[in-house]
Amino acid sequence: MRAVSTSTNALDAYRAGVELADAMVDLDPEVIFLFTSVHYDQPEELVEALRDTLSNDKLIIIGTTGDGYYESHGVEEVGAAALGLNSEGKVRWYIDSEPGLRESPGQVTTNLLDRLVEVESGALPTLVFMTSDFRADASLVGEAIERESRFPIIGGMAADDNKMTSCILYCNGEVLQDAVVAVAAFGPLNFDISVSNTLTPIGKPGRVDDAQGTNIIRVDGIHATEFIERETGKPVLQTDRGITSLTIIDPEQSGIRRLRSIVPDFSSSETSLGLFGGIEKGKTVQVCLAEPDMIIREVYERYREQKAQGFKPVGGLVVSCVGRKWLLGKEIEHELNALTSEFGSALPIAGFPSFGEIGPIKLEGQYTRNLFHNMTCITLLIGE
Predict the structure, then answer these.
(1) C-alpha 375: how far from its chain's center?
(2) In CATH, what is the architecture of 200-288?
(3) Residue 299, helix vs strand vs coil
(4) 3-class SS at 171?
């Protein structure tokens, strides 16, 4: 496997696509993971330029807009980044999409995954990368990927520079919205997935008494906002976005941490809590606070663990919650610095800050079911 990452700050879409493609001509990529900011008025021209310049009818392009992008040299706010892979034909790649996500997120996600399994007469993919429009109940997308846990799925929800209004998904020559897109890899793909999402629990757990979609209405017999104030000692503020989250407590799976970030913009009333993805009635939750020092320390620990296992990456994809970026500011670059400090500054990397992350957790050498996360950094390292 060979990999190349590249980026550009050019704001003319066609020129940006040409610059990305020029850096990957010698690689002749089989698949390109494309991540852009939301500043391109005609994003379809960027994809067109990639295809025109690389002149490969079989080239697969998948990606999304984010709150800026990641590339090996750092985190940027404006422009585009890409990671190209070439397995010399050893890995078979298939891309597909499904529209109608907002109306039926669970069924749409299930339909897409079912088709990917049918591609090679029922053979299971080695790995799937998935991204979707964020303007849907992400927890229903999460339920669908968790049911389909016969193979690892990683990825995340698109983002839009903190505007929370629009996003773009890239699927080969198409520029999509209100959809989910996935690429499946079949064959000998060597990879390792790490998940960083440790937050500090605050106060006592509570039971969700009433929930509707992505809103929690009541917890422990009181309004959801009162529950937060009871446990933290302060009311919910707009500034809590990216700092305050709820962790879902499952005593039967203590090693699995599932977070849902509070998003005051999504709240349906003054006393409910809007979240990035819903939590079912009857679940037990606990308030968690994000601490910058802990977040930074954990990513360095995760990458040291991966290196200690002897994994030798040729490239990597990073999907990290926008809440971590809002909280850390410029120090968000530690998520890349930690990676390159272990595996070298020349490691090709691309990725995006997302409105929700997808990926399994590795416990005792085995991957769990696929999970939907918030306030999480997921890294896919692709090996030789």
Answers:
(1) 10
(2) Beta Barrel (2.40)
(3) helix
(4) strand
Number of other CB atoms surrounding residue 229 within 10 Å: 14
Q: Which amino acid, residue 74?
A: G
End-to-end CA distance of the chain: 5
Q: How far is the CA of 199 from the CAs of 237, 286, 287, in angstroms?
A: 19, 11, 9
Tokens read off for 302: 């995760």
Model pLDDT for residues 226-245, shown as the tens digit of each residue = 999 999 988 887 767 767 88
Residue of 183, 170, 185, 197 whose CA lies nearest to 50: 170
Q: For residue 155, how far is the Cα from the chain centroid?
A: 4
CB 311 within 8 A of CB 384: no
The pLDDT averaged over each successive group of 10 residues in the chain (384 residues) is 97 97 98 97 96 95 97 95 97 97 96 93 93 91 91 95 88 96 96 92 92 91 93 81 82 72 82 86 91 94 92 96 91 94 95 95 88 93 93
Spell out the alpha helix ranges (H) of 237-321. 292-308
**Token pair of 134 as six digits:** 């964020």
Q: How many C-beta atoms lie closer than 10 Å to residue 268's C-beta? A: 14
**For residue 118, which of 46, 184, 215 has the smallest C-alpha distance?**
184
* Residue listed under structure tokens 């990290």: 320
The span from the CA of 209 to the CA of 219, in Å, is 5
Place of tokens 């990825």: 155
Would you kindly state where each structural domain of the chain is located, as residue ranges? 2-196+295-383, 200-288
Q: pLDDT at position 214, please?
A: 85
Taking only the tens place, the pLDDT of each residue in 285-314 is 999 988 999 999 999 999 999 999 888 999
- Which backbone phi and psi does 253 adopt, to 5 degrees? -135, 65
As a whole number of angstroms, the distance between CA 178 and CA 183 comes to 17
DSSP secondary structure string for all residues of 37-89: -S--S-HHHHHHHHHHHH--TT-EEEEEE-SSEEETTEEESSSEEEEEEE-TT
pLDDT one-digit tens code per residue, 165-215: 889 999 998 999 999 999 999 999 999 999 998 888 888 999 999 998 889
